[in-house]
Write a structure and sequence with these properties.
Elements (H helix, E strand, L loop, with lengths): L13 H8 L14 E6 L5 E5 L11 H14 L8 E3 L2 H4 L13 E3 H9 L4 H11 L3 H14 L22 H14 L11 E4 L2 E4 L4 H4 L3 E9 L3 E10 L2 E10 L2 H19 L49 H6 L6 H12 L18 E8 L2 H13 L9 E9 L2 E11 L1 H9 L12 E4 L5 E4 L1
Antiparallel strand pairs: 1-2, 1-9, 3-4, 5-6, 7-8, 8-9, 10-12, 10-13, 11-12, 13-14
Helix pairs in contact: 1-11, 2-5, 4-5, 5-6, 6-11
């Protein structure tokens, strides 16, 4: 996979080169687990709440959102398929937990790798993805950083694909919200994977780490993260009444506090948009940060992304590491090497479409079929639909979602990659068995939301 057949490239933004070239100078005090939060309207980009949104923090496993963004891009470009096998190297197998614990030399399909990342947050599989799509994890991390900057994430740097501790791997709440928005807008065909609640791999049944996905109305992803340096992080997408919000909380002291605080912020934002302002319940935030007051109306934090002028973040002291520390870190590549790697991703000097609201791609629609008690039944249902698709311009993708209903696990099959017209026709012509009612069929929007029921 190292030889990608990349497109021809023109110009590298100088800010990318300066930031990448300076990575080796990030000292131990370069970032810390400060509290930060942000709520964004996913469609318009309007900022509904911001607190420390541009403060520098560590992303932890929120990093895997970008790892998946890169993998989704490879899928969209046809450079890999969901069935493409990826080999586990000795380096990947040796990654720190959380892990899927595959042995050296084993392979895992792209689809199972996606599911392992969104549920288990498996660090070994993140490394497998990086080594498959790049010459090395270090090169892949440079590609990730370049993509981040193309999306407008100008305060983010990646040094690995997993989010395992690295003092130079940094981001902000605002940047993570932009990434969540880009995943929904640009890769709606694959975004539904983030709603997976249970992943069965062989004999292993792996539940999601994202508890808010299970107990917050309208939540359908995205990712949790934690290291000692980052605190408890969370990016959440939730939709109510045709309004989708993206929330970010960084630097929580516990997972429970983080989740409850996210629920408060989203509740207040939804209420404000419905012209029913809701006061944010007081919670004790992480040490060193001011608590959100009962009397703080969320509407006072409203700013558009273009006019926002957030409170100046606290100064972060950046010290060059001493010689002994420097020897333990990977030396930064030459500027020419960095430019070569960055050009692999940037591709052109056109404005980044990913950073702005865009219309769904014509082939990003799909359908969702009923609920099944067995995963094989769900897959069979999807295959029967695919066999009858004669107008689809590209080969559709089958996505299996899981849901807990009254304690039972149900499986829902989605066939994605259709035009809107094809999706409606597919639901209308769904095969029926004699003597049985027609199975439920829903047209699915490119964002992953159910658009209509047939």
């Amino acid at each position: 996979m190292a030889k990608h057949g990349w497109l021809h490239f023109k110009r590298v933004p100088i800010h990318v080169l300066f930031l990448l070239a300076g990575l080796g100078l990030m000292g131990p005090g370069g970032a810390w687990a400060g509290y930060a939060s942000l709520v964004m309207n996913a469609e318009s980009g309007q900022i509904l709440h911001a607190d420390g949104a541009d403060d520098i923090n560590h992303p932890a496993s929120l990093t895997k959102m970008m790892t998946l963004y890169m993998l989704f891009q490879f899928l969209a470009d046809g450079r890999v398929t969901l069935a493409t096998p990826m080999k586990v190297s000795a380096r990947a197998a040796a990654q720190s937990p959380s892990r899927l614990n595959l042995p050296v030399g084993a392979t895992i399909s792209v689809e199972n790798a996606i599911l392992a990342l969104v549920t288990k947050s498996a660090n070994d599989i993140a490394c497998v993805v990086a080594e498959t799509l790049g010459d090395s994890e270090a090169e892949f991390a440079t590609m990730m950083t370049a993509t981040a900057h193309r999306l407008g994430m100008r305060n983010t740097v990646f040094r690995n694909a997993s989010g395992l501790p690295n003092r130079a791997q940094v981001t902000t709440a605002r940047d993570m919200a932009l990434l969540g928005r880009a995943l929904i807008q640009n890769h709606g065909r694959y975004y539904p994977y983030f709603s997976t609640r249970l992943f069965q791999y062989g004999e292993m049944k792996i539940p999601t780490h994202n508890r808010l996905l299970l107990n917050y109305e309208g939540a359908d992803g995205i990712k949790t993260g934690y290291t000692a340096a980052s605190g408890f992080n969370l990016v959440t997408s939730a939709k109510r009444n045709d309004t989708r919000l993206i929330g970010v909380v960084l630097g929580g002291t516990t997972a429970r506090w983080r989740d409850a605080h996210m629920a408060d912020l989203l509740d207040a934002a939804f209420a404000r948009l419905a012209d029913k302002p809701l006061m944010v319940a007081k919670r004790v935030p992480p040490p060193g940060r001011k608590a959100l007051s009962k009397n703080k109306n969320l509407s006072t934090a409203s700013q558009s992304p273009k006019t926002a002028s957030p409170t100046k973040p606290p100064v972060r002291t950046v010290k060059p590491p001493d010689t002994a520390q420097r020897g333990q870190e990977q030396e930064p590549a030459s500027q020419a090497r960095m430019a070569h790697l960055v050009r692999k991703v940037l591709g052109s000097d056109q404005p980044a479409a990913e950073a702005t609201a865009s219309k769904p791609k014509p082939g990003g629609w799909g359908i969702q079929l009923g609920s099944f008690r067995k995963v094989d039944e769900a897959r069979a249902s999807a295959r029967s639909v695919m066999e009858r698709l004669t107008t689809a311009q590209e080969k559709p993708t089958v996505v299996i979602l899981t849901a807990k209903v009254k304690g039972a696990t149900l499986y829902r099959a989605r066939v994605m990659g259709l035009t809107r017209k094809d999706a409606r026709i597919a639901c209308k012509n769904l095969p029926r068995q004699k003597g049985r009612p027609a199975p439920a069929c829903h047209v699915v929007h490119p964002s992953g939301d159910v658009a209509s029921t047939t």
